[in-house]
Design a protein that fits this description.
It is built from 11 helices and 12 strands. The chain is α/β, with parallel strands linked by helices and 298 residues long. It folds into 3 domains: 3-86, Arc Repressor Mutant, subunit A (Orthogonal Bundle); 92-162 and 269-293, D-Maltodextrin-Binding Protein, domain 2 (3-Layer(aba) Sandwich), CATH 3.40.190.10; 165-266, 3-Layer(aba) Sandwich (D-Maltodextrin-Binding Protein, domain 2). It comes from Photobacterium proteolyticum.
């Protein structure tokens, strides 16, 4: 049994005749007819009912057709995959995203990349130092990181993409909302200190990070829990605006302006990848898609 024989059967069924299938494949009609006849011998059933110069699918042919279509499709994918492996193309790409970077800014880029059926993508979240260590150990191919003081990576390729913005938010029924007026539009650090701070973090608070804006706080690893508590008028939080845009638009959350942050709280983002990845077709496609289609502020 040959994949070409299976393809001939599929085309004859889809195009309505063996002669049309032969034209599509660039083969002689007699050759395609023989291939289908050989298939019928292999299967032990008639695939077409032939009357004069016309033919139509038999009952057995109708049952087998969807399975043969699937088999031909898988065979074509197998050929593409084998060809890519022969060129040392990666079949799996591992993308790590810093815990606090809004992954929604990658939606369009990932949609483009995943149109490539032969590529499998594994996406992880972790803190910055862990992702850099995984890149060093070849456990990760690409990482999206919060920008640090490092000016140049000698061990990796990199690109500064843009930024996202953290904002101060509370639930619409929180008392802090009533403390802003037409003449006083900002909130002071002293006002914040009277309420509980909700901290979204996937790391343990250290001596460097535990000093927040309030002596009363609670930490959570899932942003959804923070948002639910905020909408129930519990506490305040600083969160990436891209991750709470729906709640802000619906009015469930209110954005407040702290008087100790005159400018927007901008968090810059950088794309880092292992050496040589951009020389592969799949790696270059992922890198180029993220560069071109991310929705961070440029």
């Amino acid at each position: 049994m040959n994949v070409q024989y299976l393809k001939a059967f599929v085309l004859a069924a889809q195009l309505g005749s063996i002669s049309a299938a032969a034209r599509e494949m660039g083969k002689r009609q007699s050759q395609v007819s023989q291939w289908i006849a050989d298939l019928e011998i292999d299967f032990g059933v008639e695939l077409f009912v032939r009357t004069g110069n016309s033919s139509r699918l038999s009952e057995a042919g109708e049952i087998l057709l969807p399975r043969v279509i699937h088999t031909v499709s898988q065979a074509e994918k197998l050929a593409v995959c084998a060809s890519a492996l022969a060129r040392d193309e990666p079949m799996i790409l591992r993308l790590g995203v810093d815990n606090y970077i809004p992954q929604s800014c990658l939606n369009r880029a990932l949609s483009e990349v995943l149109q490539q059926e032969t590529l499998n993508l594994e996406l992880y979240s972790d803190d910055r130092e862990v992702l850099l260590e995984q890149l060093t150990n070849d456990e990760l191919d690409v990482a999206l990181l919060s920008e640090s003081s490092v000016l140049h990576y000698s061990d990796f390729q990199y690109c500064r993409l843009g930024s996202y913005c953290d904002v101060l938010v509370v639930g619409s029924a929180h008392p802090l909302v009533a403390e802003t007026t037409a003449t006083k539009t900002t909130i002071s650090a002293d006002q914040l200190a009277q309420y509980r701070e909700l901290i979204w973090t996937r790391e343990s608070l250290s001596a460097e990070t535990e000093a927040g804006y309030s002596p009363s706080y609670a930490t959570f690893s899932e942003i959804g829990t923070v948002v639910n508590l905020l909408t129930n008028a519990v506490g305040f939080a600083f969160l990436p605006i891209d991750m709470i845009s729906t709640e802000l638009e619906s009015g469930k959350l209110k954005r407040l302006q702290p008087d100790f942050e005159q400018a927007e709280m901008i968090r810059r983002v950088e794309l880092v990848w292992r050496q040589g990845l951009e020389l592969t077709e799949q790696g270059k496609r992922l890198i180029d898609s993220i560069k071109a289609s991310h929705t961070f502020t440029r």
